[in-house]
Design goal:
globular; 282 residues
C-alpha cells in the first residue's frame, strides 16, 4: 500500500511539472509567431509592410504582467539602454495562438514597426505583457564605407558554407566583391530613409532598387536589396538577415557577384539608424 501511494504521488507531481512546462512554452511560441508574422509582407492600417528581420528575445524586457509598470524605470533598473519602448498588455487569451490573433487584429502597427529590434514576452495565466524596444546606439561605428566593408566580409563568411533559408536550401556560394557604384547608391538610400524617416525598398519618388542602381551608373542585369533599421552593428544586421528567409536568400544567391552597402544615422528618425545592402550581377 505504501509503495502504491508513493507511485500515485510521483505521477501527480510529474503531471504538474508537465503542465507548468506547457504553460511556460506559450511565451516562446508567441515570440515565434510574432517573428513569423514579421517575416512576410502584411497588410496593416491600409498599407503593405516590408519583410522584417526577427525580433531578438531579451530577458531584460520580461516585465511583471500584473500591475502598473513604469517602463523607463524598469528598463533602467534592468540596465537596458532604451531609446524607445512600447508595451502591449493583453487579458483573456488562453494560449499563444489566441494572443497572436489579438495582436494581429489590434496591434499590427506595433508588431511591424521596423525600429524595434528586441522583445520580451511574459505571461500569468490569461494575462500577457509584450515589450518591444530599441536600444541606444553604441556610437562605435566607423564611417559608412568601413561598415559597408564589414558587412561584405561577414556576408562572404556566411556564403562560404551551405545554408537553409526557410524552405530553400543553398550550397556554398562564391564571395562577393565590393562595387563602388552600388556602395554609393546604398549610401544614398540609407540617408534618404534616415532623413525621411521611412523604411522601404521604394524611395519617396517611387524608384525601386533597380531604378536607383541604374541611375547610379551600375551596369548589371540583376539587383537585390536588403534593408535594416534600428540595429546598431553590422553583425546584428547580418544575423537578423540570416534569420529571415527572404533576406537570407539574397545573401546566399549564387547569381549575385557584387555588393555595395552603407548605413546612415539620424537621431530624429524613429529607428535612428538605417542600413542598405545592394547585391548585383554584372
Amino acid at each position: 500500500m505504501g509503495v502504491n501511494s508513493f507511485v500515485v504521488r510521483l505521477a501527480a507531481w510529474s503531471l504538474g511539472l508537465l503542465a507548468t512546462a506547457a504553460i511556460a512554452a506559450e511565451e516562446p511560441q508567441l515570440l515565434e509567431s510574432i517573428n513569423a508574422y514579421r517575416s512576410q509582407v502584411q497588410r496593416c492600417a491600409g498599407q503593405a509592410s516590408e519583410e522584417l528581420p526577427p525580433l531578438a528575445a531579451d530577458s531584460r524586457l520580461i516585465l511583471p504582467v500584473v500591475g502598473a509598470v513604469d517602463l523607463q524605470q524598469a528598463l533602467a533598473a534592468a540596465a537596458y539602454p532604451m531609446v524607445n519602448v512600447q508595451a502591449i498588455s493583453l487579458s483573456g487569451p488562453r494560449d499563444a495562438p489566441s494572443a497572436m490573433k489579438v495582436l494581429q487584429e489590434s496591434f499590427c502597427q506595433t508588431l511591424l514597426d521596423p525600429q524595434f529590434v528586441d522583445i520580451g514576452v511574459s505571461r500569468l495565466e490569461r494575462d500577457w505583457r509584450i515589450v518591444l524596444a530599441r536600444p541606444l546606439l553604441g556610437g562605435r561605428l566607423g564611417d559608412w564605407q568601413a561598415e559597408g566593408q564589414k558587412l561584405l566580409e561577414q556576408i562572404n563568411a556566411e556564403r562560404a558554407q551551405p545554408r537553409q533559408c526557410g524552405a530553400q536550401t543553398f550550397a556554398a556560394a562564391a564571395p562577393l566583391v565590393w562595387n563602388a557604384a552600388l556602395g554609393s547608391v546604398a549610401m544614398a538610400h540609407s540617408r534618404a530613409m534616415a532623413n525621411g524617416n521611412y523604411f522601404a525598398h521604394k524611395d519617396r519618388d517611387g524608384r525601386t532598387p533597380g531604378d536607383r542602381a541604374e541611375l547610379g551608373g551600375y551596369v548589371g542585369g540583376t539587383i537585390g536589396e536588403n534593408i535594416a533599421a534600428g540595429r546598431e552593428t553590422s553583425r546584428r544586421v547580418v544575423d537578423g538577415w540570416l534569420a529571415s528567409p527572404g533576406h537570407c536568400a539574397n545573401l546566399m544567391n549564387p547569381q549575385f557577384r557584387e555588393l555595395g552597402a552603407a548605413y546612415a544615422v539620424d537621431p530624429q528618425s524613429d529607428a535612428g539608424i538605417y542600413w542598405t545592402a545592394l547585391f548585383g550581377a554584372p
